[in-house]
Amino acid sequence: MLALVFTVFAALSPVQGSGTLAIQAKTLHLGDGRVLEKGILLVQDGKFRAVGAGADLPPGVRLIQHEGAITPGFVAAHDQHTLGEEAADGTRAMLPEASIADAFDPKAKELRLAARAGVTTLLLAPGASNLVGGQTAVVKTAGARVLQRKSHLALSLSSEALRLDTPPTSPMGAINVLQEELAGNAGVFAELKAGRLPVMIHAVERHEVLRSLEFATRNGLKGSIEGAPLAGELADEIKQSGLSVVLQPFSGGDSRRELRAALALATAGVPFAFGLDAPNAGPQVLRLSAAMCLREGMDRKALEKALFADAATICGVGDRVGRLERGLDADFLLWSGDPLDLTSRLQAIYVDGVRLDTH
Amino acid sequence: MSQMITSGLLLALGCLPAFAQDKQESSNDWNVFAEELYTADGGVIKNALVRVQGGKIVAIVPGGSAASGDDSLRAAGMTAGMIDLSARIDMGFASVEQEHEISPGMRIADSIDLFDPEWTRTAKSGVTTVLANPRDDDVIGGLGLALKTAGANSVVERTLKADAVLRGAIGTQPSQRNHPAFGSPSDIFSRRPTTRMGVEWEWRKAMYDAAASRADKSRAYQGSEHVLAALDGKLALCIQTWSTQDIRTAVFLKEEIEREKLGSPRLILDAAAEAWKEPQLLVRSKAMVVLPPFPLQGRTGEGSFMAHDTAKVLHDLKVPIALSAHGTGAAETRLDRQAGLAMRGGLPFEAALAAVTIAPARMIGIDDRVGSIEVGKDADIVLWSGVPFELTSRVVGVLIDGRLVLDPRPDKNSAAAK
Amino acid sequence: MRLPSPRLALLASLVLALPLSGNALADGKLAIKVGRIVTMSGPDIVNGAILIENGRITAVGADLKLPWDAVVIDQPKMVAFPGLVEAHSARGMDRANENIDVAPFLNVRDSIDPVGFYFEDSLRWGITTINVQQGPDCVIGAQGLVVKPVGITIEDMLVKPDAGLKLSASPKRGFSPATQQQALRSAFSELRTYLEEIVRDKQQGGERAKREALFQGRDLEGEKSKGKAMGGNAWKVEGLEVIPRGEIDEKQEPLLALVEGRLPAFFYCARPMDVQRALEIARANGFLARTTLVCNTACWKAVDAIAQAGVPVVLEGPLVQIERDPIDGREIETFVPKIFVDKKVRFALSSSNTTTESLWYQAATAVGLGLSRDNALKAVTVVPAEILGLQKRVGSIEAGKDGNVLLFSGDPLSVTSFVEHVIVEGKPVYDRSKDIRVKALLEGKLPAGTAAADEKGAKASGATAAKPHDDTGTVPTDEPEPKKKD
Asked: Are residues A112 and A38 in the same domain?
C-alpha cells in the first residue's frame, strides 16, 4: 500500500467521475456519535465501500491523507426555504394526497447554498398553515435527486393552521377532523394507522406539543414533532410517546431557555434533529446551532447523532445516508478541524461520491 | 413500542398510568395540621391533623397537635380545595369550533393550553378543580370536562371527569359573530342565528332532531348522541344564561321537553346573574345555578343586573348554588373573594364554603373524589392564614392530589408545580 | 298607626323630634355609645362612648358621664372607628388633568364637583378626609385642597386650603423622561431668573413687577405690600425683600412658596427611575422636607433612595407587583407595603381606581397579604393625617380632634362589615339604612315610582308582565305554546 501525503485545498476543480477514493482522516465521525481516530474511508461507485481502522485498499488506489475531520453530510430534517413560494397552499385545510416532491425544483439556488454549507440531504415539508399539508419528501442538494418521495404525512397542529372564518377554527375542531379521517381508514390515513407511514406534526407552543403527543399516542402513530423551540421542556412526555423532535435552529439572540430545552431532549434520550427554517438565516445556521448546543453543555455524541444518523432516521432514510458506514451513500464532508469548532473550515463536499464544485 | 400501545390504551380508557406519578419531584405524603378545619357540612374541627398519602386523604385526627418534620405543613385554617365550574381559562376563539353552531361532539379537552399561566395562578388561589368548557360563541359548543388545575403535563392525567357536561348558551353571545348572507355567503358566519330567538330555534331543532333520532337514524347528526344523553338526563346540560329572559327560555325549554315526553334534562345555569329576579323558575325546574362574579356596581354580562344578595336569596329557597370567578385576571374577582362577597350579601359562611366546594362537586358528579376533606377523597387541600374568605386572610398553601402547589412554609420558596 | 294612649303619643313625638341628621346638631352635643371603639391612639375601648361637642371630640372613654342634652346614638353591637383619611386622590374633579405643562397658579377648587358620585361613594365607604390633587399628567400641576365629602359648595367641604402642589417625575403624555426632567429643572431655573430680574429691575427703579401685578388684578394691600427676604435652604435670590410679595407673578408665586418650604409637594412617580429624579428636583430646590412621593407599585425598587431621603409615600396601584421571569416564565410576586415597613418608610394606602376598592378594602387586603393589622390601619388613618399635616385634627378618636367617626356593623376589616353610620365634624351625614343606592345594589330593589325602577323592570326581564324580585313567588304564566316538531 502506497501512502502519499496529499493536501486538499478548498478551491479545487471537481474531480469528474465517481471512481474509487480512499481517504484517511485524523478523525472519522461516523454519524452515530462514534469517532474513529485515523480511520480510513473507501468510496466506490457512489457508496461507502469500507469504513474502518485499516481498510484493504483495491490496487491502484492512492490513500489521501486528510489532516482534519471527516463527517457525513449534514441532514436537515425540515426545510421549506428551498421551495420558494411553493411551500404554502392557501386554498384548503386538507391536502393528504399532495406530495411536496412535486414542488421540488432541482435547479433552485437555495439548494446550492445548502450544499455549500455542507447540508447534503434535506427533508422538504409543506407549509404550516394547512391542517394536513401533504407528504414530505427527502432530496439531495446535489445531483437533482429525490431520495424518497413519501417520508411522512405532514400535519399542522399549531395556531397557524387555524382560521377565524373557515373551519377548523379551533384545536378541537382540528383534532375532530383528523379523528374522522383516521376513522375513515382510507388513503394515507390508513397507512398512518397501519404504521406504514409516520407523521411530521408541526407544533410551536408547548400545549400544541402536548396535544400532538396525546393525539399520536391515542392513535398509535409514529413520527416526529417539528417546530417547537421549547419541546425539550416536555422531554419526558415525548420520550413516553416514542416520537422524535425536529428543532428549528437557534438564532443569535438570547436563546438560553431554548438551549436548555434542547439539552433536556438529549438527556432524556429523545431522538432529535435540526431543521433549516430559521427566519432570515441561511443553512450555516445548522452548524452554528450545533456549536451553541455544545457550548451549553450538550453531550457531543447526542449532538452528532442529531446532525447525522438520527436526522436521517427521522427523515426515513437512515438506510441511505447519515452515517459513514459500508453500503450507505457516499455523502461526506472534509473539515480542517473539529466540525463543531466554528473556526474550522469546510474544505470539501462529496455527494454520492462526487466532489462538489464549490467556487 | 408495546409500552406505548399499552399506555395508549390506558389513556384511551381514561385511567392513570402508574408511571405518571414517578416523575414528580415533590412528595405526595404529608401531615397537614390546622387550628381549624372547616368541613363541607358546616362544622369546624379544632386542631385537626390530616394525613395525606399517595395523593389521597387517609386520616383525619381531631384535637391533635402539629407534627414537626419535613413532611409537615401547618396553618390557621384548612378547607377542601375549591372548585370553579366557570373558571373560563381559555384560548379565546381557539376554545370554540365555530364551523357549526351546534357542535355537541367537540371536546374542549382538545383545546386546552396547560401552560397558560392562568392555571398556576388559579391553582395558587386555592381553586384545585375547574370545569373547562368551550366558549359560548356556539349555541352548543361541545363537551366540558372537569380537571385539576395542576399536576402532570397531560390533560388526560389531570382529568377528573371527561365529558362532564354538554355546554351551550342562550342569550346574545352565540349570535354575535353571525350575519345574514346578503347575496352569497362570504364566510362561515353568514348563517343563523343572528338573534336571541334564532338561538332558541337552534336549541329546539338540535333537541328535537336528537330525540327523533331515537327512532329514525337519519335524524341523527354529528354529536347528536350527546344531546340525546342530555335529554335523557344522563349528561348535565350546562347553559350560559345571563339575564332572566334567558333563564326563562332555558327553563321553559326543559319543561317543554318534559311535556312532550322527549326526556328529562338536568339543568345547570351558568352566569345566571339575574336568577334573583324570578327565583321560582329555578325552584320548580330544579335547576342548579352557577353565579358569575359579583359586579361591584350591579351591571354585568349581556346587560344583566346582579343583586348582591343573589346568593342568599337562592340559598334561602334551597336552590343549589355554586360561585365562580371567571378567571384570576384581577385579584378582586378570585373565587375566595366571591365567597366573601356572597357573605357580604347575606349568605352564611357555611353556605359560602359549600358553594365553592361540595356544591359544585355535586353538580357535576365528582363529589366522590373532591369537594370535601374526607378519608378516601383526593388530597386537594387549601390552607388559610386566618378565617377563609375574610379579606384579612389569604390562601397560604395548596395541595393538589397531595402535591404541593403553594408551599405554606415560611422558610421555603413557593414551589409552584409546572 | 293608632296610638293606644296620649302619653305614648307624646313620647313618640319626642323621639321623632330628635332627628339624627340636619342642622340641629351643628352646634350641639353628640354622644356615641358603641360596643367597641378602635381609637387608633391606644388600646380599644370596650363598651365606650365618644362625646362630640361643636364638631370636636371632647371625651372618649369607657365610663363617660354624658351631658343630659346630648343626642345619643346607642349602638351596642357596632364598632366605632376614626374616619378614614385619603392622603391623595385625583378624583372628584370635573377633569383631573390640565393641558398646560406647568400650571401652579391653578387650583383644584375650580374643578372639584361637590355633588359628584366620587364624594358620595367615598362617604359610603367611610372616607371622611380627602386630599384632592391634580392628576399626574403634568410637569407641575395645580394646587390641591383637603376636603370632606360633605357639602354642596367648596366652602362647605373645605378642611384645609393650600394642601400642596402636584409635581410629576413621570413623563407627561408626549414627553420622554429626559424632557420631563428638563421641564422640571427649567420651571425652577425660570423662577430664579424671574426673581433675579424683578429684583434688579426694582433696584434700578423700575416698576415692572408692580405693573404686571396690577395687570393681573392682584391684591397689593396689607400683607401683600410687604417684602421679605427669600427663605428656603437650597438656593436664594439676594435682595428679594425689596419686592412686595403681592407683586410676584401668580405663576411664579406658588413655586416660590414651594422653594421656601411654605407649601407641601406631592410628587408623582410611576417607575423606580422617576423616584431618583423626583428626589433630585426636591433636593436641588430645597423642598425635600415637605415632599410626599405618590408612588406606583413598581417604585418599591427605589425604596433605599426613599428611605435615605426620609420622605413618606402614598402607595397607588395594586399592592402586589407581578413580574414575569424572562427565562422560565415564572411569575414573581412582591408585596410592596411590607418592603416599605421593613425599610422603615412611612406610607399611606390609597383607594384604587374603582371607588369600591377603597381604603378599608386596601387595609383589609394588606393584612391578608401579610401586613400587620396595626400597620394597615395606621396606613389609612394616622399616617395620611400626618402626611397632610392634619395629625392634630383627624386620624384617630381622641379628645381635641375633629368629630369624624365611622360606625361599622362589625369588625372594621371583616368582609361582612358595613359602614352603617358616618359622623363628620359631629354631624351624622350617612346612614346606610337610608342609602337607596346600597339597597338597589344589594337587593335589586329600587324605590317604587322612580323612573329607573320602572325602566329597569321592563328592560331586564324582557317581558312586560314580569316584575323584578316578586316576593309573592308567582311567575308569569305566559309560556310559549308547545311546539310540534317539523
From this structure: no
